[in-house]
TrEMBL record:
GO terms for biological process: maltodextrin transmembrane transport; maltose transport. One of its GO terms (molecular function) is maltose binding. Residues 1-18 form the signal peptide. GO terms for cellular component: ATP-binding cassette (ABC) transporter complex, substrate-binding subunit-containing. Belongs to the bacterial solute-binding protein 1 family. PANTHER family: MALTOSE-BINDING PERIPLASMIC PROTEIN, MALTOSE_MALTODEXTRIN-BINDING PERIPLASMIC PROTEIN. This is Maltodextrin-binding protein. InterPro entries: SBP (IPR006059). It comes from Eisenbergiella tayi.
Length: 402
């Protein structure tokens, strides 16, 4: 009977709402599916256009929610308030699975139908042995550079080469390389490059403590050659204004770089000389999840929707619409995808990328690691002292969840 007090309370609220609200009009129409999302317009417009043609007998209505996860925690499976499905990143799967509001997609489609999906995307969508998401596309961080300053032949293939480049090209308001070095999402790549991790599948924080410490110590040499301010806007502005030769950023930076007329290059992540491992960023897998009420009461419509989304054409249209990297490997045989350098770069990075942990305990680790990075990189606290404080905080917060 263990699990999470906060989730239990949320579930009690949901049950109360359901008891009071009863079945709404939405629940009465088995051929209307409401899908919540928080995606950009181009993605949803492409999906809507595709589904309108693929499912002429089913109405799929997309509704944007800016605080989607908070809203879901409140409404749960209440048929009068909840959606039938939602599109979101995979990292909240554990939270909603523990609430009991999700149905594994393999209860509605066959596991064999997913054989062509990139293994990383299926790993990300799996929690406690069950696949709770049908992956649509994924995102990873990429090594980006401005060809005006860094030539293709100068792109570092190892971290020591990157460090040497930074030393030669940093000064007088210009930086050889910048990143959000004190943000957990970005620094995770360095931790993974040393064989460490922020948390394991069992909810144990920093399972290889020495690897994390080694990564923090090594990374400091790079941090000292970057600005102390690491907010996204600062890093983004430096790169877009030509004051930074290279950066590690997400695909969301590409449109701005192109608008700024930057001759943008994208390369593989550098390999850590000490370990032989590449900097391995987190990946976020975006996909569709099925709420239990809809799975039980709109089974036919939900199955038809999932089967329609299995078509590789979905990944192709999303790649064209917004540079999304498809989860279905068959999409990469299509010229409309294989000719897209951005999408292909993410496809290559997917070979080394680490799916963001989808267990509930990860929620507290973002704060813990952020505090640790601030202490080490900005406050210049000793690594051992800062790490001990972070581990104590992590264990305390995770214990409070159980």
């Amino acid at each position: 009977m263990k699990r999470f007090l906060a989730l239990t309370l949320a579930l009690l609220i949901v049950m109360t709402m359901a008891a009071c609200g009863g079945s709404g009009g939405k629940a009465a129409d088995p051929n209307t599916l409401v899908v919540w999302h928080d995606k950009e317009a181009a993605v949803i417009e492409a999906l809507q256009a595709y589904l309108d043609k693929a499912l002429p007998d089913i109405t799929v209505r997309f509704e944007k929610k800016t605080s989607l996860t908070d809203s879901l925690k409140l409404v749960g499976n209440d048929p009068s308030s909840a959606p039938d499905l939602f599109i979101f990143a995979h990292d909240k799967i554990g939270v909603f699975a523990e609430m009991g509001i999700l149905t594994p997609v393999t209860e509605l489609i066959s596991q064999s139908e997913l054989s062509g999906y990139l293994p990383m995307t299926l790993e990300a969508a799996t929690y406690n042995g069950s696949l709770y998401q049908l992956p649509l596309y994924f995102e990873t961080l990429l090594f980006m550079y401005n060809r005006r300053y860094m030539q293709d032949e100068e792109v570092p293939t190892t971290t020591e080469e990157l460090l040497a480049y930074m030393k030669e090209n940093t000064g007088r308001g210009r930086y050889g390389f910048v990143e959000q070095h004190s943000t957990a999402y970005y620094s995770a790549a360095w931790i993974h490059g040393f064989g460490g991790s922020i948390i394991d599948a069992d909810g144990t924080p920093f399972p290889d403590q020495q690897a994390v410490k080694d990564a923090l110590e090594y990374h400091l040499k790079f941090v000292d050659l970057m600005p102390g301010e690491t907010e996204y806007s600062t890093v983004n502005t430096l790169f877009l204004e030509g004051k930074a030769d290279a950066t590690i950023g997400g695909p969301w930076m590409v449109p701005s770089a192109r608008e700024a007329n930057i001759d943008l290059g994208i390369a593989s992540m550098p390999t850590v000389d000490k370990t032989g491992r590449a900097l391995a960023p987190y990946s976020g897998v975006q996909g569709i999840h099925v709420l239990t009420f809809a799975a039980q009461n709109k089974t036919d419509a939900v199955q038809k929707l999932l089967h329609a989304l299995l078509d590789p054409e979905v990944g192709v249209v999303l790649a064209q619409a917004s540079g999304c990297a498809p989860a279905n490997s068959a999409c990469y045989d299509d010229s409309r995808v294989c000719d897209d350098t951005l999408v292909q770069a993410m496809r290559t990075t997917a070979e080394i990328a680490v799916p963001m942990p989808n267990i509930p305990e990860m929620d507290v680790m973002w704060t813990v690691v952020g505090n640790l990075l601030t202490d080490v990189n900005l406050s210049k606290s000793g690594i051992d002292k800062a790490f001990a404080a972070a581990l104590t905080q992590a264990n305390s917060l995770i214990d409070a969840m159980h």
